[in-house]
Amino acid sequence: MTKDFAVIPFNSGAIADKYLISNMLGGWDILGENDFKLFSSLKCNRGTPLFNRLYERGLIADERNFNRLLEDHRNLNSNLFYDASLHIAVITTHCNLRCRYCQAHAARPEHMSLKVARRTVQCIAERKTPYITLEFQGGESTLNWNVLVFLTKSIRKLERNNRKIDITLISNLTALNAKKMQFFKDYSVNICASLDGPKHIHDQNRIFGNGKGTYDVVIRNIKKLRKQFKKSVNFLPTITKSSLCAFKEIIDEYVRWGATSIALRPVNHLGNACSNWRNLGYSAEEFMTFYKNALDYILELNKKGIFIRERMAKVILQKVFNKEDPYYVDMMSPCGAGRGQIVYMPDGSCYPCDEARMVGGKMFRLGNILNETYETLVKKENLLHLLETSAINLWDYASVLSPWIGVCPVLNYTEQKNFVPKIHCSFIYKIHEFRFKYIFEKIAKGGQDLEILKSWVAKKEGENEKE
Amino acid sequence: MKKSKDKKKGRTFKKSIKHFIKDEDGFIEKEKIIKIGLGTISALTVVGSLTAPKQAYAEHTDSPAGKYMDEEAVPGTTCSRLVVRDHTHGNHDSGK
Question: How confident is the model at residue B92 (pLDDT cuts 50, 70, 90)?
Fold first, then answer.
């Protein structure tokens, strides 16, 4: 007898003492041993409780649910249908700090000229996407003030074309004055500051040229922005070796300054971090222990009524529970380099992503906007090859995490000196994999932890997304 | 002789990506591995294109009020909601 349904091809993996199954459309479930055996031997008959459950979860398809499954798949990967919205302007490579792990250190620092800035605006204006984020990166962006003002005012004008514009400043917050703060307030520039944790951790790495720590100045300016200018500030830590045991102190420091989100990201083996790796670096396994402890602590705080989310966990949960695309370019397959983001350097040269410009050189350079069109740049052969090498199905095709996981080909290349990565040796991939598996363990165990994780990405009634 | 010279170069980025892809190392040419992968990506892209909702290709047709595409923008189709938002990355946190 012909079956009128099909089990969509799936991958499986052990999670706790159960089995996680998933398919390329983003359907997934966690099964006990008996159910898994039934399912994997394709002996699941219509009308049984297991069939109904797997049908609902998108693991079994027939004519009735197929359109819904395709729509889920499109939403999970909707970034594929849109142009780059993240435009990173490195308006200067000058910096007033000498951070020990600086990934963007330039041998010959320079400011972006107004000529390059004008061309940058032109490139951004031509993009066919309803959302545009202009992000100022450096160096320390506030040191090239005239260009920052020019770009901010010019990009804000694009709102007249019914686009949503976000402007974000990534800053060390040590080169600000009242005039600059007022400008950020007037032009709704979001501010993200580097804050590695409490003073004794922050000041180990983030220092002025004379070796003095920057914590006191950063905190003074955060207070001033908030109190005098009613301007909120977000923070971003870099986790170094000395942070690994201090997860509670770092998270407490974020709670202390009112943060509702913390992104626990490892230090990259780029720039100055390479020469200081012995003092700053660690293995992927050491970071995993840190992440596990930190996430558990964050969940404990939530149980006490203190709301704070871990950012990568949220990205994962958005994909897994909501089947929606968080547009997070560092965890896409193919990655978001050149497709979701593009970087404009002070001399007009373009790179496909922030990590690529940190590596520098000709390997990842797409060209220069002063003498090439944007369309020419994003059709360059090296970008195509870069995207090919980021397609996770190439390197880990049987992974149960393949509907959601992605990897950075630039970091893989700098680590392994090869575009054909040994994926299970990749520092960043091991960390991504661990994050997923630890969260799926929480899901498999259920209970209060699961409820809290779900609440991080829950949508209120009538709300499209909770942000 | 050439080998030892290459070794001395150590960790500099002298090859282009294309060079890497074409370079043979082991039993299978990397180019062939990439081709296999490209086949997979192409297949996925074709499936994606065939099934992509019409409004996915429209320019600036989203509702300014929300981050979902407007349901009425594609009357007569079952594809009513396509989530679109701004790209983010790990080197900044806007608190979203």
Answer: confident
> Which of A8, A78, A165, A343 is most worth mutating to test chain B (most B CB atoms within 10 A of its CB)?
A78
Burial A143-166 (b: 16+ CB within 10 A, else e): bbbebbebbbebbeebeeeebbbb
The string of pLDDT tens digits covering residues A306-332 is 999 999 999 999 999 999 999 999 999
State which H helix or E strand residue A315 sits in. helix A311-320
B19 and B43 fall within a common domain = yes
A329: nearest CB among B45, B81, B87: B87
Is B20 near chain A, with CB under 8 Å? Answer: yes
Q: Where are the beta strands (DSSP E) in A172-289?
A: 189-194, 233-236, 261-262
Ranges of each domain in chain A: 6-76, 82-359
Question: What is the rounded average pLDDT of the residues A358-378?
Answer: 95
Q: Answer whether residue B47 is part of any domain.
A: yes
Q: Over pLDDT 70: what percentage of chain A? A: 98
The Cα–Cα gap between A228 and A235 comes to: 19
Substitution target in A71, A267, A314, A396 with the highest count of B β-carbons within 10 Å is A71
Q: What is the pLDDT of residue B80?
A: 47
* DSSP secondary structure, A387-439, as one string: HHTT-HHHH-TT-TTTTT----HHHHHHHHS-SS--GGG-HHHHHHHHHHHHH
Name A89's bridge partners.
A136, A344
Contact A80 B48 (CB under 8 A): yes
Half-sphere exposure in the Cβ direction for A52 (13 Å, CA): 3
The count of residues in chain A is 467
Beta bridge partners of A86: A133, A341
Counting the structural domains of chain B, the total is 2
* Same domain assignment for residues B44 and B65: no
* pLDDT tens-place string over residues A167-221: 999 999 999 999 999 999 999 999 999 999 999 999 999 999 999 999 999 999 9
SS3 category, A231: coil
Q: Is residue B70 part of a domain?
A: yes
For residue B58, give how far its alpha carbon lies from the nearest alpha carbon of chain A (Å).
9
CATH-assigned architecture of domain A82-359:
Alpha-Beta Barrel (3.20)
What are the backbone dihedrals phi and psi of residue A163, each rounded to the nearest 5 degrees, phi first? -110, 150
Q: In this structure, what are the phi and psi dihedrals at residue A92, rounded to the nearest 5 degrees?
A: -160, 150
Within 8 A of B58 by CB-CB distance, chain A residues are: none
**Domain enclosing residue B26, as ranges:** 15-51
Across A394-433, b (16+ Cβ under 10 Å) vs e yields bbbeebbbbbbbbbbbbbbbbbeeebbbebeebbbbbbbb
Flag whether B5 is in a domain. no
If we measure between CA atoms, which residue out of A371, A331, A377 comes closest to residue A351?
A377
Task: With CB atoms and an 8 Å threshold, state whether A261 touches B95.
Answer: yes
Question: Could you tell me where the DSSP H helices lie in A99-174?
Answer: 114-125, 145-156
The yes/no answer to whether this complex scores an ipTM above 0.95 is no
Within a domain: B1 = no
Q: Are residues B20 and B47 in the same domain?
A: yes
